[in-house]
Amino acid sequence: MQQGTNLPKVGSYNRAVVLEAIQASDGISRVQIAAVTGLTAQTVSVIVRRLLEEGLVVEDGSAPSSGGKPRTILRVEARAGYAVGVHFDPQELSFVLADLAGRPVARLHQPVRPGARPDTVIRQMATASRRILREAGVPDAKVLGVGLACPGPFDGAGVMVSPPRLPGWDRVPIEGLLREYTRFPVTVDNDATAAAIGERWAGIARSTPSFAYLYLGTGIGGGLFLDNQVYRGRSLNAAEFGHITVEPDGPECYCGNRGCVEAVCCPSAIEAAMRASGAGGRSDHADHADHAAICAAAAAGEPRARRVIERVAGRLADAAVSLVNMLDIDLLVLGGPALREVGEIYRAVIARAVSGRTLARRLHAVRVETSPIAADAAAIGAASLVFHATYAPRLGTLPSRQM
Amino acid sequence: MQQGTNLPKVGSYNRAVVLEAIQASDGISRVQIAAVTGLTAQTVSVIVRRLLEEGLVVEDGSAPSSGGKPRTILRVEARAGYAVGVHFDPQELSFVLADLAGRPVARLHQPVRPGARPDTVIRQMATASRRILREAGVPDAKVLGVGLACPGPFDGAGVMVSPPRLPGWDRVPIEGLLREYTRFPVTVDNDATAAAIGERWAGIARSTPSFAYLYLGTGIGGGLFLDNQVYRGRSLNAAEFGHITVEPDGPECYCGNRGCVEAVCCPSAIEAAMRASGAGGRSDHADHADHAAICAAAAAGEPRARRVIERVAGRLADAAVSLVNMLDIDLLVLGGPALREVGEIYRAVIARAVSGRTLARRLHAVRVETSPIAADAAAIGAASLVFHATYAPRLGTLPSRQM
């Protein structure tokens, strides 16, 4: 049932709305904040004064206004707070130290030892988080928390349940353990949702009300912002774009479905398609190429590799058309490590489909963009989880976690 | 950008939250309202007193409580207000007079004269709306408004733009004209979104936070409630479930895509599939059957018709799996006139797919239900549009219309 609200909630909600308006802009005046948020000039003025006092926001020069005196420009004070973002991929741990503006200040990558026990990996996360803070000279008092981006699925308490690519990680209380080992607040989310939150906080989706994030990694996932709110779904497992059916009679997927995007478009499927493309005729070294080599060959214009990637992009485009018709969004962001070298091939194929085959295309354009932070999207997003949990406007509904 | 809020908005929001909690229940006490809405007992008490004074709510007996005195049960006063719901289908106009509890009090069906000019049809809507009110003896003072459910797509002002099955209706200012001819407030929405709002206000989705409505009529559409809010998308054209790709190399769809749900599963596609199923061999009268006859035959167990309907249900099931994986909803409602006789065949096939092939199936069950008001869903939904526009809790965001 929809939740009611009260005065203290309204106060912190409006405060978050103002902070978000400042963060989403490249410098904004009080008058402009009032215009974009619908708040009165007086309310904006009171909230901004408090944000200035707390050091979360700074005045940064002035801009000419239409008549009258120049308007003071406000920006988020990037050095007011920091968060460590941890991206837990089955093969690798990525760490980013981000400032409050969402900019990465330091990075660290470490392999995950194959077969390592969960407790060992979580201790490794804690040690590396401490190390990146120490090397950057950020004191504990400035740390808002640690954000952790993991593969799903999650249960209602944010615990991974039988993650398909992480045997041994079923129902590990990762959030609690990482909190214990780091002694910082910890926020956990799905890797693709984290990447979407990163784009919203600091990336190309800053002021976009509704957008989808298509995350291409070892698997394929997604994240959703709908009407200015992250949408997580009933069990925190929305936006599983990897499990849109694109080939009804296609290969079986581990999820129990057939012909899923992931079963057809993930790196191992691309490797299999490359081998199959040479079948029945000559066989050459391309048949044994791994995903990275195939992408490099496609980017260099090698015809077989290029055909394989374009065919996969075509299937992703089919899913993107369904997605846009279902959610009528403004923007589709492509990100994740599997885009390396071939991001523009994917973007072009998907953009052509979305601009030519969606139902509402004559009513408004849907942008398709590759994330400029694609490779580190989940780690930067993980850091943004902390800022989002601390500062994003939410009102009248409890966070999904508390359902 | 997310909108701020203020005290008057909070007051009317909480009021709507309480009214919705009462309407969603089969009788609820003040204590229970506080529990489900998170509002304090005192806030609930003040709001309920006002709703009683206004006559929107009545006290209706009492229920035993755990210790202490029995609790007074509250219900919406059905006779406090009425709305006329109009469903504009290319072939037929359906009218429902609904009371505030969303129950149909009277019904009226009229054919649309083929080739009739828009102004003639809109005058027909107004005359019939007046007639249904007069015959039921509802005075103007009790009429909250007229709700109109139309085929999309819509522009940002709620005007139909090139509706594919309604040539001549491009950009007709239908809302304004119907307001002028009836002299009541008019609320227009997509037919499938209206049906979803009807299920939420008075049907099987009353207390479901996130659900999808799959509407099967001449075309195939849908509606979405996500996190307790109707989701309309950037241009009011979300939930176009008829344009999810289910056969990548399938027939062309008028929308510009190939193998859409609608191109494969709509009544005319079912008729074509029936003809094709007899091709190459014997030909009998079944090859010339219309959709209604095919559905009747399938319901009676005729094998060819049954196979055709089950195959179509299988394609809808593929789309439903994608939908559930994308939105992680609690409930999928099937409704619309094309379900007549074959609702249970569709429901069974789709329910089996959703419970066996979705990613989060081990975390929570997703109910698949046929709407008990399937045939009149859009008209009852149209009436509910008025109640929803008047009473649904919304806060901090402007209605999409005002973007």
Enumerate the spans of chain A where pLDDT stays under 50 for 5 or more consecutive residues.
Answer: 396-403
- Proportion of strand residues of chain A: 15-25%
The largest sheet of chain A is: 5 strands, mixed
- Physical arrangement of strands within the biggest beta sheet of chain A: 5-4-3-6-7
Largest interface between protein chains, with number of residues from each side: A-B, 82 and 81 residues
Number of domains of chain A: 3
Q: What do we call the CATH homologous superfamily of the largest domain in chain A?
A: ATPase, nucleotide binding domain
Could you provide a short overview of the structure?
Two copies of one chain form a homodimer. Chain A has 403 residues and is α/β, with parallel strands linked by helices.
Topology of this protein?
Two copies of one chain form a homodimer.
Chain A: H1 7-24, H2 30-37, H3 41-53, E1 57-63, E2 71-76, E3 82-88, E4 92-99, E5 104-111, H4 118-136, E6 143-150, H5 174-182, E7 186-190, H6 191-202, E8 211-216, E9 220-226, E10 229-230, H7 261-265, H8 267-277, H9 291-299, H10 303-327, E11 331-335, H11 343-357, E12 367-370, H12 377-391
Parallel strand pairs in A: 3-6, 6-7, 8-11, 11-12
Antiparallel strand pairs in A: 1-2, 3-4, 4-5, 8-9, 9-10
